[in-house]
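W.,

You were right to be curious about this one. When I first looked at the sequence I had no strong expectations either way, so I just let the prediction run and decided to look at it fresh. Below is the sequence, 181 residues in total, followed by the output.
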Amino acid sequence: MNKRTLGCLTEEHLMLFGMITQWFARHEVLVHQIMGIVSRSDATSMKLLTNGLSFNVKRDALFNLLRHRAVPLDRIDQVRRYLEILNTFTPLRSDIAHSGWIEAKSANSAQPAWLSHGPVAAIKAVHDIDEHAKTFIEDYQDQVTYTLDELNEIVDNLEVNYTRFRAYVTEIWPASGSDDT
Protein backbone atom coordinates (compact mmCIF):
# COMPACT_ATOMS: atom_id res chain seq x y z
CA MET A 1 0.00 0.00 0.00
CA ASN A 2 1.20 3.48 -0.81
CA LYS A 3 2.30 5.23 2.40
CA ARG A 4 0.27 8.39 1.87
CA THR A 5 -0.55 10.26 5.02
CA LEU A 6 -3.85 11.67 6.21
CA GLY A 7 -2.62 13.62 9.20
CA CYS A 8 -2.78 11.50 12.33
CA LEU A 9 -4.65 8.64 10.64
CA THR A 10 -2.65 5.48 10.04
CA GLU A 11 -3.44 2.66 7.66
CA GLU A 12 -4.90 0.81 10.64
CA HIS A 13 -7.28 3.71 11.37
CA LEU A 14 -8.42 3.70 7.75
CA MET A 15 -8.87 -0.08 7.75
CA LEU A 16 -10.96 0.11 10.95
CA PHE A 17 -13.01 3.00 9.54
CA GLY A 18 -13.72 0.89 6.46
CA MET A 19 -14.69 -2.11 8.58
CA ILE A 20 -17.07 -0.01 10.68
CA THR A 21 -18.68 1.34 7.52
CA GLN A 22 -18.97 -2.17 6.05
CA TRP A 23 -20.59 -3.63 9.19
CA PHE A 24 -23.15 -0.84 9.06
CA ALA A 25 -23.81 -1.67 5.41
CA ARG A 26 -24.30 -5.35 6.19
CA HIS A 27 -26.77 -4.53 8.96
CA GLU A 28 -28.58 -2.31 6.46
CA VAL A 29 -28.90 -5.25 4.05
CA LEU A 30 -30.68 -7.19 6.80
CA VAL A 31 -33.01 -4.24 7.34
CA HIS A 32 -33.79 -4.27 3.60
CA GLN A 33 -34.39 -8.02 3.71
CA ILE A 34 -36.85 -7.75 6.59
CA MET A 35 -38.63 -4.83 4.92
CA GLY A 36 -38.88 -6.83 1.69
CA ILE A 37 -40.29 -9.93 3.35
CA VAL A 38 -42.78 -8.06 5.52
CA SER A 39 -44.00 -5.98 2.56
CA ARG A 40 -44.04 -9.05 0.25
CA SER A 41 -41.37 -7.51 -1.94
CA ASP A 42 -37.61 -8.05 -2.06
CA ALA A 43 -34.47 -6.58 -0.52
CA THR A 44 -33.35 -4.97 -3.78
CA SER A 45 -36.63 -3.07 -4.12
CA MET A 46 -36.32 -1.90 -0.52
CA LYS A 47 -32.75 -0.76 -1.16
CA LEU A 48 -33.90 1.23 -4.19
CA LEU A 49 -36.87 2.66 -2.32
CA THR A 50 -34.79 3.83 0.67
CA ASN A 51 -31.56 4.64 -1.17
CA GLY A 52 -31.36 8.33 -0.25
CA LEU A 53 -32.37 7.87 3.36
CA SER A 54 -30.06 7.92 6.37
CA PHE A 55 -29.72 4.76 8.43
CA ASN A 56 -31.85 6.24 11.21
CA VAL A 57 -34.68 7.04 8.79
CA LYS A 58 -34.44 3.52 7.30
CA ARG A 59 -34.64 2.07 10.79
CA ASP A 60 -37.70 4.20 11.54
CA ALA A 61 -39.29 3.09 8.25
CA LEU A 62 -38.66 -0.54 9.18
CA PHE A 63 -40.36 -0.12 12.55
CA ASN A 64 -43.29 1.74 10.98
CA LEU A 65 -43.71 -1.16 8.58
CA LEU A 66 -43.41 -3.79 11.33
CA ARG A 67 -45.89 -1.91 13.50
CA HIS A 68 -48.51 -1.95 10.73
CA ARG A 69 -48.13 -5.61 9.78
CA ALA A 70 -49.03 -8.74 11.71
CA VAL A 71 -45.55 -9.13 13.18
CA PRO A 72 -45.43 -10.41 16.77
CA LEU A 73 -44.19 -7.83 19.27
CA ASP A 74 -41.37 -10.10 20.46
CA ARG A 75 -39.94 -10.12 16.91
CA ILE A 76 -40.11 -6.34 16.73
CA ASP A 77 -38.39 -6.08 20.12
CA GLN A 78 -35.66 -8.48 19.02
CA VAL A 79 -35.00 -6.48 15.84
CA ARG A 80 -34.91 -3.30 17.94
CA ARG A 81 -32.29 -4.88 20.24
CA TYR A 82 -30.07 -5.85 17.30
CA LEU A 83 -30.28 -2.37 15.83
CA GLU A 84 -29.60 -0.59 19.13
CA ILE A 85 -25.83 -1.00 18.78
CA LEU A 86 -26.01 0.82 15.46
CA ASN A 87 -27.88 3.65 17.11
CA THR A 88 -24.96 3.90 19.53
CA PHE A 89 -22.33 4.07 16.77
CA THR A 90 -24.18 6.10 14.12
CA PRO A 91 -22.45 9.34 15.21
CA LEU A 92 -19.05 7.65 14.77
CA ARG A 93 -19.98 6.37 11.32
CA SER A 94 -21.18 9.85 10.40
CA ASP A 95 -17.91 11.37 11.60
CA ILE A 96 -15.96 8.77 9.60
CA ALA A 97 -17.85 9.72 6.45
CA HIS A 98 -18.12 13.47 6.94
CA SER A 99 -15.20 14.68 9.06
CA GLY A 100 -11.49 15.09 8.79
CA TRP A 101 -9.64 13.66 11.77
CA ILE A 102 -6.95 15.11 14.00
CA GLU A 103 -4.78 13.81 16.78
CA ALA A 104 -6.54 14.07 20.14
CA LYS A 105 -5.04 15.26 23.40
CA SER A 106 -4.84 11.76 24.88
CA ALA A 107 -2.03 9.61 23.54
CA ASN A 108 -2.63 7.35 20.53
CA SER A 109 -6.11 8.66 19.80
CA ALA A 110 -7.90 10.62 17.12
CA GLN A 111 -11.04 12.73 17.00
CA PRO A 112 -13.15 14.43 14.34
CA ALA A 113 -11.53 17.72 13.35
CA TRP A 114 -14.76 19.70 13.58
CA LEU A 115 -14.45 19.65 17.37
CA SER A 116 -11.35 21.81 17.23
CA HIS A 117 -12.76 24.53 14.97
CA GLY A 118 -14.27 27.06 17.31
CA PRO A 119 -15.26 27.40 20.93
CA VAL A 120 -16.97 24.57 22.81
CA ALA A 121 -19.97 26.89 23.17
CA ALA A 122 -20.49 26.49 19.42
CA ILE A 123 -21.54 22.86 19.93
CA LYS A 124 -24.03 23.64 22.67
CA ALA A 125 -27.53 24.11 21.27
CA VAL A 126 -29.12 27.48 21.91
CA HIS A 127 -32.65 26.19 21.20
CA ASP A 128 -34.21 22.75 21.62
CA ILE A 129 -36.12 22.56 18.33
CA ASP A 130 -35.46 18.97 17.25
CA GLU A 131 -36.55 16.01 19.34
CA HIS A 132 -33.93 13.82 17.61
CA ALA A 133 -31.00 16.20 18.17
CA LYS A 134 -28.12 15.15 20.36
CA THR A 135 -28.06 16.69 23.79
CA PHE A 136 -24.97 18.65 24.69
CA ILE A 137 -22.51 16.86 26.95
CA GLU A 138 -19.87 18.98 28.66
CA ASP A 139 -17.09 16.49 27.94
CA TYR A 140 -18.35 15.73 24.42
CA GLN A 141 -14.85 16.04 23.01
CA ASP A 142 -13.75 13.12 25.18
CA GLN A 143 -16.80 11.12 24.05
CA VAL A 144 -15.75 11.24 20.38
CA THR A 145 -12.06 10.54 20.83
CA TYR A 146 -11.03 7.04 19.78
CA THR A 147 -7.92 4.96 20.28
CA LEU A 148 -7.07 2.11 17.92
CA ASP A 149 -8.01 -0.34 20.68
CA GLU A 150 -11.43 1.29 21.03
CA LEU A 151 -12.00 1.22 17.27
CA ASN A 152 -11.01 -2.47 17.20
CA GLU A 153 -13.48 -3.17 20.00
CA ILE A 154 -16.25 -1.34 18.11
CA VAL A 155 -15.50 -3.41 14.99
CA ASP A 156 -15.64 -6.61 17.06
CA ASN A 157 -18.95 -5.59 18.65
CA LEU A 158 -20.49 -4.73 15.27
CA GLU A 159 -19.30 -8.05 13.80
CA VAL A 160 -20.71 -10.12 16.67
CA ASN A 161 -24.01 -8.24 16.55
CA TYR A 162 -24.27 -8.67 12.78
CA THR A 163 -23.54 -12.40 12.99
CA ARG A 164 -26.27 -12.88 15.59
CA PHE A 165 -28.72 -10.60 13.77
CA ARG A 166 -28.14 -12.42 10.47
CA ALA A 167 -28.72 -15.80 12.16
CA TYR A 168 -31.90 -14.45 13.72
CA VAL A 169 -33.20 -13.04 10.43
CA THR A 170 -32.40 -16.29 8.60
CA GLU A 171 -34.16 -18.33 11.29
CA ILE A 172 -37.27 -16.15 11.69
CA TRP A 173 -37.62 -14.95 8.10
CA PRO A 174 -36.05 -17.81 6.07
CA ALA A 175 -37.15 -16.31 2.75
CA SER A 176 -34.58 -13.55 3.33
CA GLY A 177 -31.80 -15.58 1.72
CA SER A 178 -28.16 -14.64 2.13
CA ASP A 179 -27.37 -12.01 -0.49
CA ASP A 180 -25.60 -9.84 2.07
CA THR A 181 -22.01 -10.17 0.98
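Here's what jumped out at me. The chain has six helices and three strands. And, maybe more interesting for your project: Residues 11-176 form one domain.

Coffee later to discuss?

I.
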